[in-house]
Amino acid sequence: MGEKAYLNESLSFEERAKALVAEMTLEEKVFQTLHGAKEIKRLGVKAYNYWNEALHGVARAGVATVFPQAIGLAAIFDEDFMEEIADVISTEGRAKFNAQQKYGDYDIYKGLTFWSPNVNIFRDPRWGRGHETFGEDPYLTSRLGVRFINGIQGHDDKYLKAAACAKHFAVHSGPEEIRHSFNAEATKQDMCETYLPAFKACVQEANVEVVMGAYNRTNGEPCCGSKTLLKDVLRDTWGFKGHVTSDCWAIKDFHEFHMVTKTPVESVSLAMNNGCDLNCGNLFGNLLQAVRDGLVKEETLDGAVTRLMTTRMKLGLFDAKIPYSEIGYEQVDCKEHRALNLKAAQKSVVLLKNADNLLPLDKSKLKSIGVIGPNANSRAALVGNYEGTASEYITVLEGIREAVGEDVRVYFSEGCHLYKDRISGLAQANDRIAEARAVADASDVVVVCLGLDATIEGEEGDAGNEFGSGDKKSLNLPGLQQQTLEAVCESGKPVILVLLAGSALAVTWADEHVEAILHGGYPGAQGGRAIADLLFGKVSPEGKLPVTFYRTTEELPDFTDYNMTNRTYRYMKNEALYPFGYGLSYTDFDLSAECDAAEIAAGGKVQIHAALKNTGAMDGAETVQVYIKAKDVAGAPNWQLKGLKKLTLAAGESKEAVITLDDKAFGLFDENGEKKLYPGIYEVYVGTCQPDERSKKLTGKTPLMFTVECKAEAVVEVL
Questions:
Q1: Rounded to an integer, what is the distance from CA 198 to the centroid of its chain?
Q2: Which residues, in sequence order, are CB contacts of 105 under 8 Å at separation 6+?
Q3: 2 falls in which pLDDT band (50, 70, 90)?
């Protein structure tokens, strides 16, 4: 007998996968559609578990580099750096996989199919899973999502380094508590303009290997069995060739909560027939009955299993020698990766306020520093969720102690619990406030570390606290944190507020009363060291907010309303507390720019040549941001980010960025899902922040504005 066709490396992966599936029995095929796919010994198919996570580092499988949470990576506003981080994640993923395979470990979280990135839009700051995303803007999310996937999947001509997964398709952003039964209703215009662009970019630009459906229904259809999303949009319109996985146990929601089917067999039939290939969970075992009853054609099942096997073949799981098989375990958590992690944490922190240039601190002029707050010495506040295990965690307290050494006395108090009214169970309420006041009185300057962690904002089922189901009830600091901050400020000492949180907080009082504010996100295992580096001027802040900081929850629409009106910087009517795209520096930058065209037409493009000079005394980095507003189109967004470029400059150095805007950058989707260029004037803003009045006031800078005219209406894109 000759070599089996599925082992013939001269054939395409699709041909090999099809040949392999042809050798399988019905039962064998069915059990390959579960995330924990069984071994088929007679065919040489090893057991494989598809469920793995790599949101900001290889997760849930032991030691790995724990980078800043996704929302913190987004704050870096740097496509190139995002790919560099994702490349390290996939290197560690391969290294761990190679070691696990050697010792016969095929468990959950041990595969090469990483269910990341989360490219849902963070449309409402109350959503508990928003910190898993790249923020509120479809353009930024698209660019970062594409480059993250490029880093995960690699650039080999034949094999995938690892398989990335764009999730949760689609229109998924809370509430967590009702996600298993919720129907998200969105207009075609909002779908095209906001909820789908990042997924389209991941599919068509990055060739993402996997797409995961969401728990909710979208416009009446459960996402993991949606003909509209999985067939009409994803495969037929966008040309997606990879495989689709359900979210975990989402298929049983069809009959238990969405009530669109009556039985498990009907549910799996709906999912499989509409293009869901893999079931995270065990319900697809019912496909055996569905095929026998004629509810699912066997060739439909064959197609699904062929796509799944194609992914595994692209990963090299059936070949003896591939480019990534030599990646050794010494790559995991290595010195170079830890250095990159520190750099990422430094870059991700956003300086929100710095009155009278209080920062950076000169430690030679300090005798004592107070560190107060529930997040000051918290590892949980460093890492967010979907995290790995770091070999070293540096909290803010530890980072400050390390930075000042023996020369400066460091006082510490928790100040209060993260959200409860006391720390010691038998004590009276507010049992650390006296200690916090004492620390403030004894210190020359006070760093107050407040915010959230993943027990307050997170995934439904993961966050077990009185805030409930992972979502935030308001944008206020929880528990006694605000009271603690006010008490510390009464000391009269200079106060620096460090916020560790994965979402916007309404820190309006702090904005008025605290001298300096840093937003650290969840800065990763090296986060405390990075924040200390910023506090003492070892590096200059360069992060930008990937979300809007609102002033109150009351100005927001209802949480369950998926209409984009009055949501995010693109559609909001009120003034932000801290706007999207905003972030200060210790140095200063001058920007000049030229626009090479005054007109735009279908098929055309406009180039922006932006020159940036670091005019300050410190080395630093700044992001050139380009926004476009359709001035003459009724109901158009305020303006939309359509170009960005991060530039790192030494003091006194100048660099140029060239940003190309094609016709699609100027187009707007109509209610039918057509992106049109409309006749009229388009304002193109080039700067280091948004062109809104609040950003101008906070930064003292006004973006340059160019006008570009369109003379003839044209359709430039169809969903």
A1: 11
A2: none
A3: low
The pair of structure tokens assigned to 41 is: 């010994």
CATH of 589-718, one of 3.90.1150.10, 2.60.120.10, 3.40.50.2020, 2.60.40.10: 2.60.40.10
With 50 as the cut, is the pLDDT of residue 671 above it? yes
Is the confidence at residue 496, as pLDDT, over 90?
Answer: yes
Structure tokens at 259: 């009530």
User: Rounded to 5 degrees, what are φ and ψ at 591?
Assistant: -120, 135
Cα separation of 488 and 654, whole Å?
A: 42
Token pair, residue 416, equals: 């209060």
Q: How many angstroms separate the CA atoms of 291 and 269, rounded?
A: 9
Distance separating alpha carbons of residues 205 and 142, to the nearest angstrom:
10
Taking residues 609-618, report their average pLDDT.
Answer: 98
Sequence-distant contacts of 550-558: CB under 8 A, at least 24 apart: 550/125, 550/475, 550/504, 550/506, 550/574, 550/576, 550/577, 551/506, 551/508, 551/575, 551/576, 551/577, 552/475, 552/506, 552/508, 553/126, 553/474, 553/475, 553/476, 553/506, 556/124, 556/125, 556/126
- The alpha helices in 241-323, defined as continuous H runs, are 253-256, 264-273, 287-292, 298-314
Please name the helix (run of DSSP H) or strand (run of DSSP E) that holds residue 684, with its range, or none. Answer: strand 680-687
Instruction: Look at residue 556 and give its three-state secondary structure.
Output: coil
> Averaged over 447-461, what is the pLDDT?
92
Q: What is the mean pLDDT of the chain?
A: 97
* Tens digits of residue pLDDT in 443-452: 999 999 999 9
Q: In what order do the strands lie in the sheet with 654-662?
A: 589-595, 605-614, 654-662
Residue in the structure block whose two tokens are 């796509």: 307
pLDDT at 353 over 50: yes
Token digits of residue 177: 């508590």
| Per-residue pLDDT tens digits for 585-594 | 999 999 999 9
Residue 240 dihedral angles phi and psi, to the nearest 5°: -65, 130
User: Which pLDDT value is given to residue 15?
Assistant: 98
Q: Please list the active-site residues.
A: 247, 457
All structural domains of the chain with their residue ranges: 335-568, 589-718
Asked if 369 contacts 409 with a C-beta cutoff of 8 angstroms, the reply is yes
Average pLDDT over residues 228-234: 98
| Pairwise CA distance, residues 26 & 24, whole Å | 7
Strand order in the sheet with 210-213: 165-169, 210-213, 243-245
The architecture of the domain spanning 335-568 is 3-Layer(aba) Sandwich (3.40)
Long-range contacts of residues 324-331, Cβ cutoff 8 Å, at least 24 apart? 324/94, 324/98, 324/154, 324/156, 324/159, 324/161, 325/98, 327/91, 327/94, 327/95, 327/98, 328/95, 328/98, 329/95, 329/96, 329/98, 329/99, 330/95, 331/91, 331/92, 331/94, 331/95
Q: Which residues of 617-629 are buried (b: 16+ CB within 10 A; e: fewer)?
A: eebbbbbbbbbbb
pLDDT value at residue 465: 46
The one-character DSSP state at 428 is: P
Mind listing the pLDDT tens digit for each residue in 311-328? 999 999 999 899 999 999
pLDDT, tens only, 570-587: 999 999 999 999 999 999
